[in-house]
Write a structure and sequence with these properties.
The complex is a heterodimer of chains A (108) and B (119). Chain A has 108 residues and is mostly beta strands. Chain A contains no helices and 10 strands. A 6-stranded mixed sheet of chain A has the order 2-10-9-4-5-6, with no helix packed on it. The chains are: A mainly beta (108), B mainly beta (119). Chain A binds chain B through residues 32, 34, 36, 42-46, 49-50, 55, 87, 89, 91, 94-102, and chain B through 35, 43-47, 50, 59-62, 95, 100, 103-112.
């Protein structure tokens, strides 16, 4: 089973700042990584797939990068609506499909 | 508009069964693999089951294998999850989720249905 480790667990930033979230895989997953945004009492929403392709509806301030075992989600110029929990998920060599434990992005 | 609408959740006693359903709208159901993903309170999502578009591949997470059964009904455009031998560890919000053809990331999710296992 591929384990995804996200860091930090919580990130406290102010609107307008840049957020950098990390996801590390226990073995190489090429670029088979997705990111999701989840707000309270809502289902996760697909944000990034194939490590760097932005899903429909998300603005260009969201970007993903990485390959192999190390991946990054960057949010430039944080807007109030960006404060949420972010999860990474792999889809390489499955089953099982696994998620990271999440990074909570909170307003400082 | 793509919509996934789960139903069937509720309170169930330990050891009991429960059947979840997911009605889908706005896309050709037979063209997509489907999944169940659950999320325990305060935890991250956990993928638990997958069924391919033509039912020739079915996979489960180890945590539910032998207790849960995923199925799909093309006539009714619906996905189901039969859950047996439920325990407290199965308490979660259960989501159905569509995966993109060829890749198992989840582009559409339902709103979720809560399942609580308690006496």
């Amino acid at each position: 089973e591929i384990v995804l480790t996200q860091s930090p667990a919580t990130l406290s930033l102010s609107p307008g700042e840049r957020a950098t979230l990390s996801c590390r895989a226990s073995q190489s997953i090429s670029r088979y990584l997705a990111w999701y945004q989840q707000k309270p009492n809502q289902a996760p929403r697909l944000l990034i797939y194939d490590a760097s392709t932005r899903a429909t509806g998300f603005p260009a301030r969201f970007s993903g990068s990485g390959s192999g075992t190390d991946f990054t989600l960057t949010i430039n110029g944080l807007e109030p609506e960006d404060f949420a929990v972010y999860y990474c998920q792999h889809y390489s060599n499955w089953p099982p499909i696994t998620f990271g434990q999440g990074t909570r992005l909170e307003i400082k | 508009e793509v919509q996934l609408v789960e139903s069937g959740g509720g309170l169930v006693q330990p050891g009991g069964p429960l059947r979840l359903s997911c009605a889908v709208f706005g896309f050709t159901f037979s063209n997509y693999g489907m999944n169940w993903v659950r999320q325990a309170p305060g935890k991250g999502p956990e993928w638990i089951a997958y069924i391919s578009k033509n039912r020739d591949r079915i996979y489960y997470a180890d945590s539910v294998k032998g207790r849960f059964t995923i199925s799909r009904d093309y006539a009714r455009n619906s996905l189901h999850l039969q859950m047996n031998s439920l325990g407290a560890e199965d308490t979660a919000v259960y989501y159905c989720a569509r995966n993109m053809p060829g890749q198992v990331y989840f582009d559409y999710w339902g709103q979720g249905t809560p399942v609580t296992v308690s006496s």
